[in-house]
Amino acid sequence: MIVCVCNVIRETELEQVARMGAGTVAQAYRALGKQAKCGQCTCFARQIIDCARATDCQSQLQKVA
What we know:
The protein is 60% helix and 8% strand. It is built from three helices and two strands. The protein starts with a strand and ends with a helix.
């Protein structure tokens, strides 16, 4: 699904950069070589990043346990 229409950023791209360490929308967009324009996507992008990082953290904790 396209999250950011201005930059044509897909949900999978945000998930990928979040798992690689991007913790904020600005960091994720920078990692993709983009910049938020109208700002309509930032709330949804933040949710995707948080979810991807939480999932990644959970998988890492399961490996340790």
